[in-house]
Amino acid sequence: MFVLEVSDVNSSIVWSNQKRFNYLQFEMKAIFDGLDNLLNRPVYVHDSKMGIVQNIITANVSIIPRAGGIIRDYGYFKEYPCKEGYNRENPYEESAKCVINDDQFVTLIEHGDWVTVKFRSTSGGFQKFFNIDNQAMPYMTNYYSGLSFIKTVEFRFDFKGPKHCSEVDKRTCPFGATILDIPDLLRNGPIIPRWLGWTDTLSGVGEYYMEVFKLGPNRVGRLVETTPTNPIFSTTVLHTNGTIKYPQYAPSGSGMYRYVADALDDNEEPLTRKAIPNFHGIVKYEIVFVQTVDATQPILGWTEISLKESFSTQRPLEDGDRLRVWVRATDLMGNQRADSTIIKVDGSKPRLHAYTSKVELNTVNGPYKYSSKVVFSASDNDSGVHMIGFDIFVGTNPNNFATMKKSIEDAECRNVDGVCFLSSQTVFLDNCWMLVGRTYLDKMSAIVNVTAYNQAMLGTSATINLGPVNKLLGLEKYDGPKNPRIVTKTHTGFRITWNLPEKQSCYGRADILIILSRKTAKGEAVLHMYYTPGTSNHFDILGLNPETEYTLGLNFQAPGTMAQQTYFLTTKTGAYEPPNDSSSYSGDDGPVSPAFTLHIIISTHLCVRWFSKQ
User: Fold this and answer.
1) Number of domains forming the structure of the chain
2) Among 502, 518, 507, 519, which Cα is nearest to 556's?
3) Cα–Cα distance for residue pair 606/614, rounded to 1 Å
């Protein structure tokens, strides 16, 4: 996997030599700088808000002309609208973040292609007006047309390495051009290499990388690098159009040295030596089998095996046998490292004692909001109990089907051959795993089927009865909000507030339905219904008639069920009082929108990744 990432908003062009990208990830954050010293909101403006209303990201693949020419071909284009909840009805007043993943990017990228990514953020907002001459009824909504700001990042692809001018056209070579030259090979003092004439027509030459290796004779007298994977000196030199600042290296002693410049073809033999077979630098693997658990490295009995990362063999083993396998590796320099693993043969299943198990429903201080626990004993004298799995069954006949499967590996243990294994086992259960429809609470029961596994993954199972699910906390019926009351009252409305249960049941919060009614002059009932999420603890009702008596019904409604009534309240709106500040109203027939100046600053943080599968 290869990742190409940009997080600097000032980087407008990024070069890459990677192919086969199939995944994109975008991140951006726009910041809104609000208005200062605004006038107080007039009485006829009920609500107003300004901020960021839209973020859009576009990706466009521009293809190098396949048939030649200078006009680039159209490739791939896609627009990614950010769906984070902000829009002209809900502008974000401070900042708006957007994260988009596209795992279906399968466009072919070839040498010379571009991928242009644009990040556009737009501001806006609204003003909501009331008609103060008509009992503060909603009048109209004005929307602001804001400003847009765009940041652009361009990824360009170059799949061809630099070339020396002598390979392209010697007539273009500057005076003194050379692939790699070391003047005065036999000398005392620092060695200064030089090169000149390297070019790259598309992205240009960026830098040069140089390594120095010390040479020494191998077993057959041939000169090779003494440390082929670890140069004694390395450096990076930036390319310039003027004079190149060539590096220099002063050897620590006499001898022969080899200079290698990355991406410069000096016609030397590659670093990997075919004369020395190896696997990742390892020249020899050895193995030995010891019929004991003793961890002391053996001296005798080693057998050389093939240069691979795996080895297969067959040996007769019986239940209860212990076999330690040693592997030793030798590298090019003769260094050795050995390691071992123990093989234990276990053909018998664990013992699980369900008849001594204990069930504690609705335990205190469990890991879940509503917890129960089962305690039982499980053991295995040969390889120890390695893992516990369990299935939960709920129904009128809970043996028929499982509603939850889970396993644990980090519980109490005892020592077997120096390894910690499970013995007395405590399994915590989430009561919400046994969730059923409310109408079935008094009919359903639950059982848990536990299975103990040893290290050979042989298992023994037993069933433990949990009893009726209506005894489990968290599954009781939700009884709705408590203690509703009127806390704020005006001539056009009031606020109703209530208390919620301290812990949410397994069924989640039920929506709250408020039914408001009043009598007309003819005695007819007029009803209004308001919904609010079950997480709310208050609701504001506005736009009512002054000095009018209202009746409120507080109800709750769980998904898929009828609303259930809990409380009735009666209240009366206050008397109308004209505003003292006449300057807040224009005197015209309708509300007036104040003049304003919108100033927006958007800083964009972006992170674009392409992943390529190798």
Assistant:
1) 5
2) 507
3) 26
Between 267 and 301, the higher pLDDT residue: 301
3-state secondary structure of 273: coil
Q: What 3 state SS string does 584-607 have?
A: HCCCCCCCCCCCCCCCCCCCCCCC
In this structure, is residue 480 part of a structural domain?
Answer: no
Cβ atoms of 324 and 342 within 8 Å: the answer is: yes
* 254/316 same-domain check: no
- 3-class DSSP assignment, residue 22: strand
Rounded-to-integer distance, Cα 257 and Cα 191, Å: 10
Cα→Cα distances 526→131, 522, 555, Å? 22, 11, 18
Report the helix count and the strand count for the chain, using DSSP H and E.
1, 37
Is 556 part of any domain?
yes
60 near 19, Cβ under 8 Å? Answer: no
130 and 197, same domain (yes or no):
no
Q: Containing H/E element for 505?
A: none
Q: Is the dihedral of CA 228, 234, 239, 243 positive or negative?
A: negative
Say how far apart CA 537 and CA 532 lie, in whole Å.
9
Is 606 a domain residue? no
Q: How far apart are CA 387 and CA 378, in angstroms?
A: 10
Calculate mean pLDDT across residues 279-290: 82
Residue 48 belongs to domain spanning: 2-157
d(CA 161, CA 205): 9
DSSP 25: E
Same domain, 44 and 146: yes
Task: Give the residue among 37, 94, 38 at the shortest CA–CA distance from 602.
Answer: 94
The predicted-structure confidence for 359-384, as pLDDT tens digits, reads as follows 899 998 888 889 999 988 888 777 77
Q: Is the pLDDT of residue 563 over 80?
A: no
Torsion of CA 531, 534, 537, 538, to 10 degrees: 0
Buried b (16+ CB within 10 A) or exposed e, 89-107: eebbeeebbbebeeeebeb
DSSP sequence for 319-376: TT-EEEEEEEEEETT--EEEEEEEEE---S--EEEEEEEEEEEEETT-SSSSEEEEEE
Q: How far apart are CA 247 and CA 241, in angstroms?
A: 17
- Is 600 within 8 Å of 146 (Cβ atoms)? yes
Rounded to 10 degrees, the C-alpha dihedral 186/190/196/200 comes to 120
Q: Are 48 and 122 in contact (CB under 8 A)?
A: no
Residues 348-352, mean pLDDT to the nearest whole number: 82
Q: How far apart are CA 91 and CA 127, in angstroms?
A: 12
CA–CA distance, 77 with 61 (Å, rounded to integer): 6
Please tell me what DSSP assigns to residue 507: T
Comparing 219 with 246, which gets the higher pLDDT?
246
Question: Residue 611 pairs with which residues in a beta bridge?
Answer: 3
Do 42 and 70 fall into the same domain? Answer: yes
What is the structure's pLDDT at 13?
Answer: 84
d(C-alpha 600, C-alpha 121), whole Å: 10
